[in-house]
Amino acid sequence: MRSTFMGLEASKRGLFTQQSALYTTGHNISNANTVGYSRQKVNMEPTLGYPGVGLDTPKTAGFIGTGVQASAVQRVRDDFVDKQFRQETNKLGYWEARSHNITQMEDILNEPSDYGLAKSMNEFWNSLQDLNVNPEDGGARAVVVQRAIAVADSFHYMSNSINQLKENAGEEIGILLKDTNSILEQIASLNQQIIAVEPNGYMPNDLYDARDNLIDQLSTYFPVEIEQVKSGGNSLAIAEGSLTVSLKLTNGKTIKLVDGKNYAQLRNSGLDTETDGITPNGAVTGLHIVKVNEDKTETFLSNDWSTTEQTINNISSFSALGKYKGLVESYGYKSGIDANGLPIERGLLPQMLSNLNLMAQEFASEFNRVHKLGTDLSGNTGENFFVENGAVNPNDNEAVDGITAGNIYVSSRLINDQNLIAASDSQEIEESLGVFIPNPEPGNGKNALNLANVKFTKIDALEDVSVQTYFEGLIGQLGVDGQQAYRLQYNAQTLQQAVTERRASISSVSLDEEMTNMITFQQAYNANARMITVIDETLDKIINGLGRVGL
């Protein structure tokens, strides 16, 4: 026989459940503008009907409902959309870093313009042609020297600026790794809190959101893979448990960065008492991963969390992209060895520096070679026009072999005495015995024209093109790389925005929807309260009215 108060209990349950739904709606509305917040809902389910299941249960016409209960308060998320978002964020982080560095390098080279290296070199060639017309004019000679100094200064500016840009990229890598290490530690801390709460049958939704928000940030830097590990105990079936966060590699393997409450830290170099191993010093040789022990000491980490060293020796080992890879590819990393057994440094900025150094070296070498074929106003053979910084003797080969874009200078002897410019050629005349002897003509200016024609001289070391053409090729390639980086950054940004909107349509709080839900739950609450009133009146009749005939 059913209880007289059964309907009262069913309505009471309905009252409490709708009240919980109203509280959850209020929580959603309060967090409508909270970054990373996922809207929550109360999962309602009917309670067991009457009578229960068994051989000795009373016979009735059918199960009679006993009300409703809130089984759990669950956040609304789509794991597949989250995975898509992190993949697109990872790509965007890479192309943003690469595009940013290329844009800065384009600003430094500043080509084509009226103030870059190409303009300085053109003015230098033009001054040599003017000197060819007036080889004995002191003013023309002074202009040649000043134009040459401007060329050297242009090389210095580009070299110093790119080196500074490289240094800034290294600092940014250090900041990124510090941020990454902080994120890994926070994820492990949240895992520990979640593991402590879930076995009691609760759903720590706000902790889930905080953890997912950190993983979203981490996916900007590195390609990561996550795996849920159930907490056990009395955890709900829909509880998410702790997360294992792993770094994805090209060979299909993964390296754990967070495993429950355990977490790793990343270094650009191994454990070193002199440095923190975070900010790179020189080309990046690999990514070291160390485990933080309970006593806060560190040991190298392998995939099974033993004390074997785990190092990613090649930046291409990452299966995807990420901001870290974009920065390292710009800053410079060592990959492979050359014919001499020395490590090869690759990267956007080191390669540009190497190309500029080669260009400066070959330009100075060829110009010096032609200059030495001429004679100055005194009829003396020309000497090195461009020298390495700090050179004592301009005629010493050591003064030119080490020339780079950062240390190319005009010889101080020529700066102090422009008459030393070998603008004339040194014609040779044949005597009766077939011996050629020098016949200087200090005023003919023919060698100045030869020097001007260095502009068009093809040089083997520069891929058999002239210095001018080689530099134009560098600028052209940089422009192509910049266009590609910008285009792919735009594509990644577009895709990420599309996924972001899709995720927002699922997980974000809609005030209109919440207002609708509020009215719905309010009306349901009122209806349950009214039902309790009806049952109260019914019980009043039974309790106070039965046995009183005629009333």
From TrEMBL:
<keyword id="KW-0969">Cilium</keyword>
<keyword id="KW-0964">Secreted</keyword>
<keyword id="KW-0975">Bacterial flagellum</keyword>
<dbReference type="InterPro" id="IPR001444">
    <property type="entry name" value="Flag_bb_rod_N"/>
</dbReference>
<protein>
    <recommendedName>
        <fullName>Flagellar hook-associated protein 1</fullName>
    </recommendedName>
</protein>
<dbReference type="GO" id="GO:0005576">
    <property type="term" value="C:extracellular region"/>
</dbReference>
<keyword id="KW-0282">Flagellum</keyword>
<feature type="domain" description="Flagellar basal-body/hook protein C-terminal">
    <location>
        <begin position="506"/>
        <end position="544"/>
    </location>
</feature>
<dbReference type="InterPro" id="IPR053927">
    <property type="entry name" value="FlgK_helical"/>
</dbReference>
<dbReference type="InterPro" id="IPR010930">
    <property type="entry name" value="Flg_bb/hook_C_dom"/>
</dbReference>
<dbReference type="InterPro" id="IPR002371">
    <property type="entry name" value="FlgK"/>
</dbReference>
<dbReference type="Pfam" id="PF22638">
    <property type="entry name" value="FlgK_D1"/>
</dbReference>
<dbReference type="Pfam" id="PF06429">
    <property type="entry name" value="Flg_bbr_C"/>
</dbReference>
<dbReference type="GO" id="GO:0009424">
    <property type="term" value="C:bacterial-type flagellum hook"/>
</dbReference>
<dbReference type="GO" id="GO:0044780">
    <property type="term" value="P:bacterial-type flagellum assembly"/>
</dbReference>
<feature type="domain" description="Flagellar basal body rod protein N-terminal">
    <location>
        <begin position="11"/>
        <end position="37"/>
    </location>
</feature>
<dbReference type="Pfam" id="PF00460">
    <property type="entry name" value="Flg_bb_rod"/>
</dbReference>
<comment type="similarity">
    <text>Belongs to the flagella basal body rod proteins family.</text>
</comment>
<feature type="domain" description="Flagellar hook-associated protein FlgK helical">
    <location>
        <begin position="103"/>
        <end position="386"/>
    </location>
</feature>
<keyword id="KW-0966">Cell projection</keyword>
<dbReference type="GO" id="GO:0005198">
    <property type="term" value="F:structural molecule activity"/>
</dbReference>
